[in-house]
Amino acid sequence: MLARADAIGASSLAVVGTSKNAGKSVAIGDVARALGARGAPYGLCSIGRDGEAFDALDASAKPRFFLRAGAIVATAAALVPRSPALEILEVTRERSALGAIVLARVRAPGFVEVAGPPSAASLRRIVQRLAAHARFVLIDGAVDRIAALREGGDAIVVAVGAAGAPTMEHAVDDASALVARLRVPPVDAGAPLVRVEGALTAAAAAAFAREGERRQIVVRDATHITFGGRAFLGIAARLDLRCEVALHPIACTVAPRGVERSFEPRAFARAVARRTGLPAYDVYASAEYVA
User: Fold this and answer.
1) How many CB atoms lie within 10 A of CB 15?
2) How far apart are CA 139 and CA 36, in angstroms?
3) What whole-number distance in Å separates Cα of residue 288 and Cα of residue 280?
4) Tell me: the pLDDT tens digits for 241-267?
5) Is 62 exposed, middle or buried (0-12, 13-18, 19+ CB in 10 A)?
6) Taking the model in full, what pTM does it have?
7) Per residue in 32-60, is it b (16+ CB within 10 Å) or e — as a string?
8) Residue 152: left (phi > 0), alpha (psi -120 to 50), or beta?
């Protein structure tokens, strides 16, 4: 995944999930290990709280972030351990649900909890501060809050898992729809268009389709399209959806096992790769599948 981010010249990579428990944190950990192996400083931040041992909502065990010395993390000051494992570099003006957010350098390898801001604007400022300390920033994100963090220069990885869908077909549909939405092409300035200020909702898109609109429907970026799944795929087939700032999905990851159901790992990864046209990584098995 990191090599693919390098190939497009990305200076940051955001991982977004199709649902909760889609394997996002495992994917983040995998990329963090690859960055750590390079020996160059990198930054890590998150929307919300991640890296804790147990989920705050249902007390289930969660994957943890193990970071090497030199990594720089944005997290709540309340989560910084009293031991000298983290060195505070900067106290920001941003706040998380747990209070003020600081930037801290990892001084000794270990597990780290991350708590980030609740808004896209605040996350954008955090990423900018991390970029002042590190050449590459890793973002544990949410699809509605990663928009244009560096004006479209981010690589995006989509995580999809068995936990978020009743069947493998539904999970593959979810991945396909999210990748298709993130891949909405840039606007053609020489063709007629209708510019949508703010969000394009399902109701507004359906109205355009009923009216037989043939002009480009232009949003700021793909995350301003507020609906996904099969509804998006159906509307996208009937409208010429475009964006001012193109985003860059580069890969998918699959988590084939959930608490309530499991999918055959190789069949799941191959189906995701085939439907999205992107390489699919099973980060649990360290395997890559391509369409």
Assistant:
1) 27
2) 15
3) 6
4) 999 988 899 999 999 998 889 999 999
5) middle
6) 0.89
7) beebbeeeebbbbbbbbbbbbeeeeeeee
8) left
